[in-house]
Amino acid sequence: MKTNTELLSKVAGFIWYEADLLDHKEYQHWLQLWSADGLYIVPTDINETDYLNTLNLALDDADMRRMRVARLESGESVSADAAGNTVRMVSRIRLLEAGEELVIARCAMTLNELRHGRLITYPADVEYQLRPVGDGFLIERKVIRLLHAEGFLRTVSFIF
């Protein structure tokens, strides 16, 4: 198996940059990482792939992402009250497809949230569909498969 280490390095750098933006609540910069048609998806079933015809915790197009960010920044949402601090750990990044028009990568992510003095951990598999643009990428699709999506999830005040 041959790995395109240069592309893998660029993809890893992009994913780590996105994680840093979200951990530091730089949501406006995060919005700029997306293509106009990009979809942010958090399915309730980690095995589901028909996101448009099933229940999801999130299925956000550009308008929904902007509204989600507006609620988080304004505090209008109940879930944004006393927003917690987060630290994302991203590892096991693997290129699944490396085309000129689309790069697909999968990684492991553990999101740690400290809110009201409690530390909560959200482990997930994350798949990115990235469109190469210049020296970087735009996110075409991001699917976050939370390991406990089918179980109890408390109100979240962040973007996975």
What does this structure look like?
The chain is an alpha+beta fold. It has helices spanning 5-23, 27-31, 62-74, and strands spanning 34-43, 56-60, 85-98, 103-115, 118-133, 136-146. Strands 2-1-6-5-4-3 form a six-stranded mixed beta sheet. A hairpin with a 2-residue loop joins β5 and β6. The protein is globular and about 45 Å long.
Structure characteristics:
single chain; 160 residues; alpha+beta; 3 helices; 43% strand
Would you summarize the structure shown here?
The chain has 160 residues and is α+β, with helices and mostly antiparallel strands. Helix content is 23%, strand content 43%.
Percentage of residues in strands:
35-45%
Main β-sheet, spatial strand arrangement: 2-1-6-5-4-3
Order of helices and strands: HHEEHEEEE
Q: Measured on Cα atoms, how large is the radius of gyration?
A: 15 Å
> Helical amount among residues, as a percent range?
10-25%
Whole-number mean pLDDT:
91
Distance between the termini: 31 Å
What's the tally of helices? 3
Residue runs with pLDDT of under 50 for 5 or more positions: none
Label the overall shape: globular
Number of strands: 6
